[in-house]
Amino acid sequence: MASSLEPAETSSNPTSGEVLLEYLRRQVAELQQQAPRVRDNEPDSVHQMRMSARRLRAVLRSARSILEPGLALVDGSSRNLSCSELRAELKWLSGVLGKARDPEVIRDRLTALMAEQPDALLVGPAAERIQQALAAAGREAREEVLKAFGSDRYARLVEALESLPETPLSGDKAERPARKGLAKVAKKDVRRLRRKVAAVGPRKPGDAGADSGSDPDSRNVAFHDVRKAAKRVRYIAEAASLAKAKSADRIEEAAHTIQKILGQHQDSVVAREQLLRLGTKSGLGSKSDGDSDFTFGRLHALEERRADEAEKEFFKAWKGFP
Length: 322
Known about the structure:
Oligomer: single chain
CATH class: Mainly Alpha
CATH superfamily: CHAD domain
Number of domains: 1
Shape: globular
Number of helices: 10
Strand order of the largest sheet: 1-2
CATH topology: CHAD domain
Structural class: mainly alpha
Largest sheet: 2 strands, antiparallel
CATH architecture: Alpha solenoid
Order of helices and strands: HHHEEHHHHHHH
Helix content: 55-70%
Mean pLDDT: 88
Radius of gyration: 22 Å
Low-confidence stretches: 1-5, 282-288
């Protein structure tokens, strides 16, 4: 899908600095809009707020050579905040929101997977244990989110985000036409993504499944790194599309596709970790309901297959990457 963002309402040939500021302002506005929805526990609010924080962090990193010379941000204590410091705070916020988001995603994923299985193969109170464990994790994570929202750290972050300048950024790179300047940044991130993909490579002969091979954990981490790199490409291309930069929409769409496929892969990794905890007594419940272990093992195997399918889908999609 192409970007849903409308072109920047700046000049007919906006500068890189103008477009980036417009993009950042839109993400700050979205983040602030979602915050009260998160407090009220409204559906999808955590996900939307987390995405805004990620977009901000990604573009601040990708376009740091354009932004850093002229972007002065001030937090609630009147302290100047560098782009790298702001990225660190956004990473903290994304992490807090992620802990609240993940239990919901994995619960829905495993519930849907169990609904596809024959009743005869769902042994023991596995469904109840999954619901209890993930509900408990979700409650704990939500308390952490609300605690973060009430912290001075969050207040300072919001102050810093609100201090985005209204005037154009200074600096040679910021004053260059956005169509070329941001396209150049996007190409740099695409090269970085290509290096990440090359580091993974297709599965070697003899590696039969997602958890097989010499070092499956490293492979999972490598795929996760590819997904993060694809997000960076997607978000900077999204910003470049505001200036109608050449190929920006096509690159954004392709990066989004890669991100979604590898999102399924990462969800499978997290789901298998949860199933392993439940099946080895570190989850909620006791060995007295150990009959569920058969179900956990079956679900784990099915998740392995899902990860294998996501890998194959990824390499197929990657062949068409622009």
